[in-house]
Amino acid sequence: MGLPQRLILTLLSIYLYSATVVNTQQEFKIQSVELIIEPRNDVTAGTNVTLRCHATVSTSTGKGLIREYTILKNDKIVYTKTIGSSEDFVYQLHNARVFSTGLYQCKLDIQGDTKLSKAQRLNVQGLSQPVLHLNTNVVNEGEEVQATCIAPGEIGSFIFFFFDNDEQISRVEGLSNQAKTTFRLSGADIHKIHCSYKIRTAEDTFPSTKSNNVTVSVKELSITPELKIFPDSTIYEGDHLNISCSAKNVHSSSEGYKLFLSQGTKLLRTGNSTINHNMVAVPKASEALTFDCRVVVRNVEKYSEKKISVVELFSVPSLTMSPTEVFQGQIMTLTCNSDGFASQRINREDLEYTLYPSKNLPSSGKPGVFNVKALQNDFNYTCSAEAKGIKKDSKTLMIRPKVHVSALKISIEDKVILKKSFTILCQSNGSLPINYTLFKDNVQVGTKVIREQNRQAVFMDVINEPGERQYRCEAKNSLHSNKTGSSQHLSVNVIVPLSQMTLAVIPSSLKISEGKELNFICSVNGTGPVTFKWYRTGSVVPLQTNTTTETYSNLEIKPVSKNDSDEYYCEASNGANKVRSENVNVQVFMAPWKKGLIVVACLLLLLLLVLLLVASMLNIKSKRDRREAAAELSVKPSSPKSDDPLTVNLTHDTDVYNAATVKVDRAEVSVWSKRKPETESDDEISEVSNEPNVEYTEVVHARSTDPARVPLRKGTDTVYSELQNSPNGFGRIR
């Protein structure tokens, strides 16, 4: 490498490095990216379309940035390019086709920072007309034809279709805008061939118009199939048939061919030359026998078909039984018979009948007639008819022996109430259907037919008069026999609803003394059994419950007490209804002996109170006398005179003062004095004095009853006198 070249490379490296440094240092922000489709979003095929990607980018220096643009179609990358300018990026779609239809987006990437535009849809309409080419216009029947279909200018994923007179004969798929195929045309005629195509996109499929028609003339092959059947006249069942299949007008230069002989859908024989087949004629029900001879040359088929009718030698036998219904162990007759036969070939006596299974069958003496005893369970029979080596079997006859009715039962579901409907049930064992008949007192009431297993015959009846009734059921399940089953008689007692209820009380007076006996008797009109219940008002629990066949009952309370005072009533029910009596108010009074006892107790109490009052009065009088006696001692009267003598004698024998006798007007009064204790209570006031011990004595002056001295004051006057102890042991009054 020369020096100039090295210098250029060095300078270029320095430039790129400096540009990279500038770019790494420059700050930017992608503001928006917009995709614009020009000239418009909807265009026709062949239009040049421009996808313009416009980006708005803000930079810190204003210098260009390296930008990477990507065009996407239906989220798949179509094209990518890196540019260094800020100009719009443009992507050209030259000669746009339907395959270009889709959603387009533009993505901008600057140094890892990306932004995607909104999607814009491009619709390209119109496909070019396909062009068809054939390698020949004249072919022999069965020869191959090569066709080429071209979609000029189109691109994408293609499906090509080839048609013969509007009937599709081939289909080719691929990515090329042309397709080739080969096919064979059958039938000597003029054939019009054309093609079409479809282009598949991610969202839809777009079909093209038809191509040009190309006419092909097909020459018919001279070879033809030939089918022969012997005999060719009336054919009877069992006749031997000879059938041949061959090809005519075969030239030695013709391509190889193959023959096929079939009867309906059954292939009998194949071969490369004449085919022969032998068989016995067997008729098909309401259908003729169809034979087919086909020759195949170069995928070209030609065929010949014939139908023959085969006369049935005798009909398929039928197996019947008599009678049409049979019971277990009953003898029945089975008849095997072919209704029709070909009298030109056989007689009726030529037919032989066989019954299967045929163990221990008694002989009836007639052809095809068998006597059989019915088993206990279901069983099957078939029979066959045979003549001229031909054997035909009948359909299977299933025999289900019936069971006679037995264990017939009759029952009543509801209670039988006068003038109300009730249900009677009849049921028995046996084969269905079963006819039931109901009788009341040997008079028929109604009939029912039961056709389902475990179902009962349901009858409704009403009895309008009291008394006993007799019911029975009869059952029958045979149309050809008078044998019936009968139930036992069912006796029915009619329940008469209760009415006219009365409640009596013994004793008849509703006021009774304690200790007596009380009886309630409740009676009704109706039929039993009747359940009686006795209640006290306000209670839901009965005092007594009694069920009896009688129409009355009683409640006994003994002995009665005060607590038995209340209102009573009774209820009665017999399954038909319930009735209630009126309330009876019972009052229990106190016993006479208790009343006498209370009177005696009251008198004794009154006497005791009188005695206590007398004793209290005597006690008060005694206290008053004692107080009057104590009032005779007095120091001076309340209005003393100067000349009344007052003498007080005090005797002081010991440390404790004794009683002294004081004479006032020659009357003696006892005076008591008592030294106060040294320790007084907190409520008393103690006085301390330097004087000698002083005691205060209450002296009561008795008033004279002298009438000369008036007015007199009632009661007593209290005078307090001071008694002082002298050194000589005598007290002194001050």
Automatic annotation (TrEMBL):
GO terms for molecular function: transmembrane signaling receptor activity. Residues 1-24 form the signal peptide. Residues 317-398, 497-587 form the Ig-like domain. Pfam families: Ig_2, Ig_3. The keyword Membrane applies. One of its GO terms (biological process) is cell-cell adhesion via plasma-membrane adhesion molecules. It comes from the Eukaryota. PROSITE patterns: IG_LIKE (PS50835). One of its GO terms (cellular component) is external side of plasma membrane. The chain crosses the membrane at residues 597-618. InterPro entries: Ig-like_dom, Ig-like_dom_sf, Ig-like_fold, Ig_Fc_receptor, Ig_sub, Ig_sub2. Keywords: Disulfide bond, Membrane, Signal, Transmembrane, Transmembrane helix. CDD domains: Ig. PANTHER family: IMMUNOGLOBULIN FC RECEPTOR (PTHR11481), PLATELET ENDOTHELIAL CELL ADHESION MOLECULE-LIKE ISOFORM X1 (PTHR11481:SF125). This is Ig-like domain-containing protein. It comes from Astatotilapia calliptera.
